[in-house]
Write a structure and sequence with these properties.
Blueprint: E1 20-25, E2 32-37, E3 40-43, H1 44-49, H2 70-73, H3 77-91, H4 96-99, H5 102-108, E4 109-111, E5 115-118, E6 126-129, H6 133-144, E7 160-162, E8 168-170, E9 175-176, E10 179-182, E11 191-194, E12 198-199, E13 202-208, E14 227-234, E15 237-238, H7 239-245, E16 259-261, E17 266-267, H8 268-271, E18 275-276, E19 296-297, E20 300-306, E21 314-320, H9 328-336, E22 347-349, H10 364-367, E23 375-378, E24 381-383, E25 391-399, E26 404-415, H11 420-432
């Protein structure tokens, strides 16, 4: 399959992909839905106005001339598939409808260099899982020792916790170093101040397209039909804050300060050619989690880090989505088995994706083994944890024959923590008034 738009073999956005995002342009500041194709974005609002989807979308209200994807996602899998088929037809190399219509092409295809990306979805709820066995094992060894690395429940259910949707931000939005309580090993009581062990977590996010009614679980057989697509996700973590606060209910301030996602959501249908089996699950999951067939996807993942004084970013980790022990479908099925309702726009995080090899670990916590084994960045720089001015980038793609289905990038730069003395002096003055 080829498009009339030239796309290189290493470009993330060929006609086989067609990821969705929300953008605005210099000439039109209104945010609306777009689809990435090569170095361009296809303005879905223009095609919608021209009637390209009138036989597919049976509503008088626009779904693409909107600031979020939620209205389109809520239409369901049948509509998603039909629109994707229509787009591939319109963008095909041998279809003249858009290719030969100069005016329409000029209005509908905008260079990505001339647009601004926005948050693609309105997120209602965010749930973060802990689905990588290698990651869970590494963390367990550090904190509890080899004999108690995995908790007894870990191989029986996808462990997860409810995150904070309000602090999920788009790629390229700077991340302010958080502050909070920490308890150094040699201290009798906790101290308060900026996080000293700031970390990243290499994850994938699953976007819920259609949900379920409260009290009616989603079955494992139907779970993937509710997932609109996947997105790169970085769940920034304050390890020292987390180590002190997580007992007995889990992380709180250590996670709620920022979670970054990429601007492009890759539809599940684009990932179908790259479906693979995940790790063998032993013991066999209970019936409601017992998934038949291949439940994972071969997605190459890479993490790059650039210090403030460095010229080039350095690759520090290479992992793969297929390493996840629990599949996206199993996460959805488990999330709803007790009757919880998922809604259009909800975000599920996979948890850190780590492999068996050291260079496949998806966090600095593991790469540096809790700071004991610093990693080299070249140019006489090394890292135990993220430093102010660091810019961290994640990318990922599925490799086809002569093309890539890619996810773009999710990136963020670390800003210094707020001056605590200044913050507290303002608070004191306010209280005095």
């Amino acid at each position: 399959m080829k498009s009339f738009i030239e796309v290189s073999e290493t470009c993330h956005f060929p006609i086989q992909n067609l990821p969705y995002g929300v953008f605005s342009a210099k000439q039109d500041k209104a945010a609306r839905v777009g689809v990435a194709i090569g170095e361009y974005v296809l303005d879905m609002a223009v095609l919608e106005n021209e009637g390209f989807f009138k036989e597919i979308i049976k509503t008088d209200q626009p779904v693409f001339n909107r600031p979020y994807l939620n209205d389109f996602m809520g239409l369901g899998k049948e509509a998603w598939s039909a629109v994707r088929t229509k787009l591939q037809e319109v963008l095909s190399a041998d279809n003249p409808v858009l290719r030969d219509n100069e005016e329409l092409r000029k209005n509908a295809l905008i260079p990505q260099s001339e647009i601004t990306m926005h948050m693609p979805i309105k997120i209602g709820d965010y749930t973060d899982f802990y689905a990588s066995k290698e990651h869970a094992t590494n963390v367990g060894i550090m904190f509890r020792g080899k004999e108690n690395a995995l908790m007894p429940n870990w191989t029986h259910l996808p462990v997860g916790y409810h995150g904070r949707a309000s602090s999920v931000v788009l790629s390229r939005i700077d991340v302010r170093r958080p502050v909070g309580q920490q308890k150094p090993k040699d201290a009798d009581s906790p101290i308060f101040g900026p996080c000293r062990q700031l970390d990243f977590e290499l994850e994938m996010g699953y976007i819920i397209g259609t949900g379920n009614k409260l009290g009616d679980p989603i079955t494992i057989e139907n779970a993937e039909e509710h997932i609109f697509g996947m997105v790169l996700l970085n769940d920034w973590s304050a390890r020292d804050i987390q180590a002190w606060e997580y007992v007995p209910l889990g992380p709180f301030l250590a996670k709620n300060f920022s979670t970054s996602i990429a601007p492009w959501i890759v539809p599940m249908e684009a990932l179908e050619p790259f479906r693979v089996a995940g790790p063998k699950q032993d013991p066999k999951p209970l019936a409601y989690l017992d998934q038949e067939g291949e439940g994972s996807f071969d997605i190459e993942l890479e993490v790059l880090l650039k210090g403030e004084n460095q010229k080039e970013r350095q690759t520090i980790s290479k992992s793969n989505h297929r390493y996840l022990y629990w599949s996206p479908a199993q996460m959805v099925a488990h999330h709803t088995i007790g009757g919880c309702d998922l809604n259009t726009g909800d975000l599920l995080g996979s948890g850190t994706i780590s492999g068996e090899e050291k260079n496949a670990r998806g966090s600095l916590l593991e790469l540096t083994w809790r700071g004991a084994e610093p990693i080299s960045l070249g140019e006489n720089e090394q890292r135990e944890w993220l430093e102010d001015g660091d810019e961290l980038t994640m990318t990922g793609w599925c490799q086809g024959e002569g093309y890539r289905v890619g996810f773009g990038e999710v990136a963020g730069k670390i800003l210094p923590a707020h001056d605590i003395n200044e913050v507290f002096s303002k608070k004191v003055l306010t209280n005095q008034k």
